[in-house]
Design a protein that fits this description.
By secondary structure, the chain is mainly beta. It has a single domain, classed as Maltoporin, Chain A (Beta Barrel), CATH 2.40.170. Helix content is 5%, strand content 54%. It has 5 helices and 37 strands. The strands form 7 sheets. It has a 22-stranded antiparallel beta barrel. A 5-stranded mixed sheet has the order 1-6-7-4-5. β4 and β5 form a beta hairpin. The longest helix has 14 residues.
Length: 723
């Protein structure tokens, strides 16, 4: 796309200028009492490929005024990542958190929790409808071509729920040269991973097939781990099942973490059909089936006043998900093209809550044990149009709709049903003012319709008001030279409340609030990319987010609340270099500060302050340093060493001292720690390679969630055969 102002006289229609004026007027809404709220589009040019996001970053950096990181299949293999979560661990601004179980991974991005980060699988939003999050370990990495990570402001075409950014996982597709591979790796505690992949392009048809099986008896805790004395001291006797209060599930001297076994299977089938040079169809199918244990959580607050504590003994005996994605891409002319997508995502699980660590009975009264079933689905569609109005100007528009349905029942009870509809219409204009200056303006109108039914056949009940928002954006990109790109953006982003936020219930009654509104963030970002020389690239970005109506679970009240203000700001620095012919390195630093600016914990009745208000949003390290070094040798060996320094981070510990009737929230701090991983690969022949790898090489004892210790040293040995 050429510049608009080159001295040539160009005839421009009145319709064109009217369109430009309307977009500019929408952008004016950015100026609000909170600040200039605009959603930088992270302008990405369209690529008609099934596996790409709506607006991809395939153009050079100058055409992408945003902080974008692309993780390739080679990066994933070199770092020995076994799941999508692990593949994200070295990205600036991203913090990987291990959940309740060995392979349960979640991310935070630029201070925003995962429910505020849009996760896509080949452009399809992927999450559990009720909770709004996704366990990133569910997606096997062997089927992935690349992972595209947009930190901060993403295009308005992505729609709502992307306050912290966008992560798009792109699966592989066949090439003209057929490829077949078998990868086998084993670890301790009878851990076994097997993967088979095959892809090919036959005339106009490209296809890829992948199948994997992953199983394990659990994982190792660091040998220095000890159950804190405070855990046992905080336990009080309870009448319902005193034996369940024993903390046998927390290994006091390291060793295997209880109930961390898993058995996971996955199938991927993706294909594209070139009907003509200007017309392509795409179809993909993903299936995941698994059963796994959940390592015991040592605490459970039974009653607001009594504060009895129980470990929770969970197992998913049936967990299944499949995603169907159908796309049609058509180029009418050299200047106008459309893309249509339809998808269906079905999710089902059976969760058992047992009485104790024998995992045999489900008879406990308080807190109740038993069987819980989710039967959910998401169905949606998207229509996008791309119009190069002039050589210097492009207009992009998108219309999307999705229907989320959550059905749940306990034991033999009938299903309760929750339904929501989300609409989004987006329009953006990309104007290349000169050869080195471009401006992007746009806005999206997002609508959220929520319904609640006590049973599928019952009438809608207590659904709360519909929620809608207009979210404008603006971005500017400037290239002072061929080696330097500068960009800045402003955006307003929103996150609609999840079904859990709205309708969650607990032992004592409702935990959700059907009248919660959208969360809003006014995001500002500026950055630069500098190609220092042929072998060195440096990136820097600063960001600031003013967050309004933040939704937070108040552990004192025992329900979701919405408080006024929070502030997030930070800095990201990174440099990558081909240090020598056979030596490559990447180094990055992230600083993130989170501030709670108003009261979080308010009494439901009096709305007065309770005992404690945190100063920071919990579980966000202030400092993070990532390093990745790869050395290759002429005899077929490569060594990759990567690691992270994770700075201290706050968490909240709710205690009931001396069995009193007053709950106290203590703000505590996880100390900083260093994680180090290594992998040695040897290419034996042209198609056979073997490797050994060690995660957490220093056997560091650390936690990302209070009283949920992460895995200790983890060895791997594997072999890969390519045919």
């Amino acid at each position: 796309m050429g510049p608009c102002f080159t001295g040539e006289t160009t005839r421009i229609t009145s319709a064109y200028w009217i369109t430009r004026l309307l977009i500019a007027l929408l952008a004016c809404f950015v100026v609000s009492p909170g600040a200039l709220a605009q959603d930088e589009e992270k302008k990405k040019t369209e690529v008609f490929t099934l596996g790409e996001v709506i607006v991809t970053a395939d153009a050079d950096t100058k055409e992408s005024p945003a902080a974008i990181t692309e993780i390739t299949a080679e990066d994933i293999e070199r770092q020995n990542a076994t799941n999508v979560g692990e593949a994200l661990k070295l990205i600036p601004g991203v913090h990987l958190r291990q959940g309740r179980q060995t392979d349960e991974y979640y991310v935070t991005m630029r201070g925003f929790e995962q429910d505020k980060v849009l996760i896509l699988l080949d452009g399809v939003p992927l999450y559990i409808p009720y909770e709004g999050v996704l366990n990133l370990s569910d997606i096997p990495v062997q089927n992935i071509a690349k992972i595209e990570v947009i930190r901060g402001n993403a295009s308005v075409l992505y729609g709502p729920n992307s306050m912290g950014g966008v992560i798009n996982v792109v699966t592989k597709i066949g090439s003209e040269v057929p490829t077949t591979a078998l990868d086998t790796k084993i670890g301790d505690y009878d851990t076994q991973h097997y993967t088979f992949t095959h892809g090919w392009k036959v005339k106009n048809l490209s296809y890829f097939f992948g199948a994997s099986h992953r199983e394990s008896d659990g994982y190792n805790l660091a040998k220095t781990y000890r159950t804190p004395d405070s855990v046992n001291e905080s336990v009080v006797s309870a009448p319902s099942n005193p034996s369940s209060l024993a903390f046998k599930a927390i290994a006091p001297d390291g060793g295997r973490r209880d109930n961390t076994d898993y058995d996971r299977d996955a199938i991927t089938l993706s294909s594209t059909l070139d009907i003509a040079d200007n017309h392509k169809l795409g179809l993909s199918f993903e299936w995941y089936g698994e059963d796994y244990g959940v390592s015991p959580s040592p605490r459970y607050r039974e009653h607001k006043k009594g504060f009895f504590y129980f470990p929770r003994y969970y197992e998913f005996t049936d967990w299944e998900r499949y995603v169907i994605n159908l796309s049609d891409e058509y180029k009418f002319t050299d200047t106008f093209r459309i893309k249509v997508r339809g998808y269906y995502d079905d999710y089902y699980n059976v969760l058992h809550s047992y009485d104790d660590d024998t995992y045999t009975t489900e008879d406990r009264v308080g807190p109740p044990s038993g069987r819980s079933v989710y039967d959910d689905y998401t169905a949606g569609g998207e229509l996008y149009a791309f119009w190069d109005v002039l050589p210097c100007n492009s207009i992009r528009s998108g219309l999307s709709f999705k229907r989320d349905v959550h059905k749940e029942h306990m034991g033999t009870d009938p299903y309760d049903e929750l339904v929501s509809h989300t609409w989004s219409y987006a329009l953006e204009d990309v104007l290349r003012v000169t050869d080195n200056v471009s401006v992007t303006m746009g806005a999206s109108y997002d609508f959220f319709d929520k319904k609640k039914r006590d049973q599928p056949a019952a009438a809608d009940d207590d659904a709360g008001d519909d929620v809608h928002a207009l979210d404008p954006q603006i971005a500017v990109s400037y290239d002072p030279s061929d080696t330097v790109n500068l960009y800045a953006s402003a955006a307003r982003k929103i996150r609609f409340p999840t079904m859990r936020n709205l309708y969650a219930s607990g032992v004592l009654g409702p935990q959700g609030d059907p009248n919660l509104n959208e969360q809003r963030s006014y995001n500002y970002e500026a950055g630069a990319t500098w190609r220092v020389c042929k072998s060195v690239v440096a990136d820097a970005s600063v960001f600031y987010s003013d967050v309004k109506d933040y939704i937070y679970f108040d552990n004192i009240i025992g329900r979701f609340e919405q408080f006024s203000d929070a502030r997030i700001y930070g800095l990201e620095l990174s440099v990558s270099s081909q240090i020598a012919r056979n030596l490559f390195g990447r180094l990055s630093y992230t600083f993130i500060e989170t501030q709670v600016l108003s009261d979080v914990f308010l009494d439901n009745d009096t709305h007065e302050d309770l005992v404690f208000d945190p100063d920071e949003i919990p579980y966000h390290p202030e400092h993070k340093i990532d390093l990745d070094i790869t050395q290759t040798f002429n005899f077929g060996m490569s060594i990759d060493v990567n690691g992270s320094f994770i700075g201290s981070q706050n968490y909240l510990d709710y205690v009931n001292p001396n069995s009193t009737q007053t709950l106290i929230a203590n703000e505590k701090e996880f100390g900083s720690y260093v994680l180090l991983n290594a992998k040695v690969t040897q290419q034996f022949t042209g198609n056979i390679q073997g490797y050994v790898a060690v995660e957490n090489l220093l056997n560091k004892d650390y936690q990302d969630l209070y009283l949920l210790p992460a895995r200790g040293i983890t060895p791997w040995i594997g072999i890969k055969l390519e045919l």
